[in-house]
Design a protein that fits this description.
The chain is 26% helix and 40% strand. The protein has a single domain, classed as Protein Transport Mog1p, Chain A. The mean pLDDT is 87.
Length: 183
């Protein structure tokens, strides 16, 4: 905004850099330093912004992606292991799954890979509902959680997916947990 006689040359490069859609069928979503690229088929379903916690939830039919970030990792994890801390934080959401954690390096940090599937009864009910809606059932849970000391954050990305779906791996690969990775 300005008067007709104002110089707007500096605005042209900024305005030309704005993109309404992502590139190569991937969209960038973010808020307050949390940025994640997800396939264009996924639509944002919910976002949550609280002191020390950010969450973006996406859905593509039965498949879901959940991206979470907690602040002050050094305080949150004091006296506990990441596995116990995350298990407690997500106990309500994870209670409908049979799952396990495997240790894995994520973006150069020690972390955990979460692997699981729906429990029998909830899985049968959910699968029947998805099949009746002509949607391929997403009965598997996969995710990663790690502490990033550079940003003092805990990051988690989880996916509810079908049997042979590698979307999570690509979302995690594109994710940056601290500024040095973005350069």
């Amino acid at each position: 905004m300005g008067r007709l006689e104002d110089d707007f040359r500096e605005a042209a490069p900024i305005l030309s850099s704005i993109r309404e859609h992502g590139e190569n069928n991937w969209n960038l979503w973010g808020m307050f330093g949390l940025a994640v690229e997800v396939p264009a088929a996924f639509q944002i379903e919910k976002q949550q912004l609280m002191t020390g916690f950010l969450q973006l939830a996406f859905r593509d039919r039965a498949r879901t992606l959940l991206v979470q970030r907690w602040g002050l990792a050094n305080v949150a994890l004091k006296g506990t292991h990441l596995r116990e801390w995350y298990d407690y934080q997500e106990r309500n959401r994870l209670s409908r799954y049979r799952y396990r954690f495997d240790e894995e390096e994520i973006h150069g940090h020690p972390g955990l890979r979460l692997i699981g599937h729906e429990r029998l009864l909830p899985g049968m009910v959910k699968g029947a509902g998805q099949l009746s809606a002509l949607t391929k059932p997403a009965l598997y849970l996969e995710g990663v959680v790690w502490e990033c000391p550079e940003s003092n954050k805990i990051c988690a990305i989880t996916a509810q997916r079908g049997r042979h779906d590698d979307t999570l791996a690509e979302v995690v690969r594109r994710f940056c947990c601290h500024d040095e990775e973005r350069q």
